Amino acid sequence: MLKQHLQFKLSQKLSPQQIQLMKLIQLPTQAFEQRLKQELEENPALEGGKEESDTIEDEFDDLYENELDSENISTEDINIDEYLSDDEIPDYRTKANNYSADDDEKSVPYAAGTSFNQYLLNQLNTVYLSDEEWAIAEFLVGSVDESGYIRRPLTDIMDDLAFTQNIYTDEKTIESVLKVVQSLDPPGVAARSLEECLIIQLKRKEINANIEMAITILEKSFEQFTKKHYKKLLQKHNITEEELKDAISEIEKLNPKPGGSYAGNNRIVEHVVPDFSIRIVDGELELTLNGRNAPELHVSKEYNNMLKGFKDSKEKSKSQKDTVMFIKQKLDAAKWFIDAIKQRQQTLFITMSAIMEYQKEYFLTGDERNLRPMILKDIADEIHMDVSTVSRVANSKYVDTPYGTKLIKDYFSESMKNEQGEDVSTKEIKKILETVIADEVKKKPLTDDKLAAILKEKGYPIARRTVAKYREQLGIPVARLRKQI
């Protein structure tokens, strides 16, 4: 049985313009420049640079109140005056007040040279190999990863050679060819494990007592070495602490990732472009937005002339009216984009200004212990914007400060109370923890329990598991792995 009923529903929807603005806000400077370039290519009604004409289009109000069938459009349906304006300075014109010629460099640099694998193949050309051995060696080189290792078992490589290269061989032959590949530069390349990589490098050096002992330790006591069980190493190899220290010193000079040191890798060299700059001028903080975020844009003069031509023509055909509709869409899109860029600039500047004021003491001193606890909501409440907007600004933007260029989100941190009941930033605690570990006696590094006790003495009562969490976030290993002779 059919029933009719009324239902009221409250929902919130973002307009296309709001979605466009949100997408622009989250773009860092370099990505924003690419987006701007794309829009200029796709929309002929949008142009960059200064406007040469004295007459600029403005006030792109809707051409139609309702959608009309194109067949029924009459001459009076289109009011060209709605598109034309004699304003010399439209309100949507954007202009940078801190743009310099130095910001014009937009190219992304590339590293020149051959690839790492090609570099190895070029060396193979100097080694005498049979056709089958060459094919195996070429396959092995192709299996070397960016770090310089061959991670796959020889049995798998043997199967792949049979199925893909039609080469039927055995592990012994592959092992023999692998030794040839491992003799190439850089030393340690094509190793199957860290242990083998380090041993290959040591054997390429001029042999002395220290290197011999280092090779022995890696071959017979690799696990104890990685876990820094120095007492077991002293007993097992019957050596003194000084001899062990010299052997370990030789190992520490080696490169655990031989492929990573090759300068010929053909990869993009990424550069961080700061979106903001903070400087201290006469004891006060000064914030500037990177000029590359504030391009000069205007509407195409040719589109203005097209509309004037349509207005002045006596006979208005259907094709001309279709053209006007196309022009209208492009003009609207240009206006929306220009307005979105202007709002993007304002949002970025307002958000970063609030962050700078909130962390004013830190930016004046550079001492991370002066960082106040700050979460996204603190800034959102300050500037009366949504938390998601602040998040878009903080997660992808960099700021150039007198203390280096840093990601904005790094200034956000949770808080905890010290013994005095004051809110302190977790970053402050991490900085103190880092300092305590740096000053510890390396022969007897501090355990997490001892670190927790020291922090408590300093007025930060936190649990051992919290100390462990902060230590891991700082990339600091456990006490046993920090031990030195």
Automatic annotation (TrEMBL):
Residues 112-303 form the RNA polymerase sigma factor 54 core-binding domain. GO terms for biological process: DNA-templated transcription initiation. Residues 326-484 form the RNA polymerase sigma factor 54 DNA-binding domain. Keywords: DNA-binding, DNA-directed RNA polymerase, Nucleotidyltransferase, Sigma factor, Transcription, Transcription regulation, Transferase. The keyword RNA-binding does not apply. One of its GO terms (molecular function) is DNA binding. One of its GO terms (cellular component) is DNA-directed RNA polymerase complex. Pfam families: Sigma54_AID (PF00309), Sigma54_CBD (PF04963), Sigma54_DBD (PF04552). The keyword Transcription applies. Belongs to the sigma-54 factor family. This is RNA polymerase factor sigma-54. The gene is rpoN.
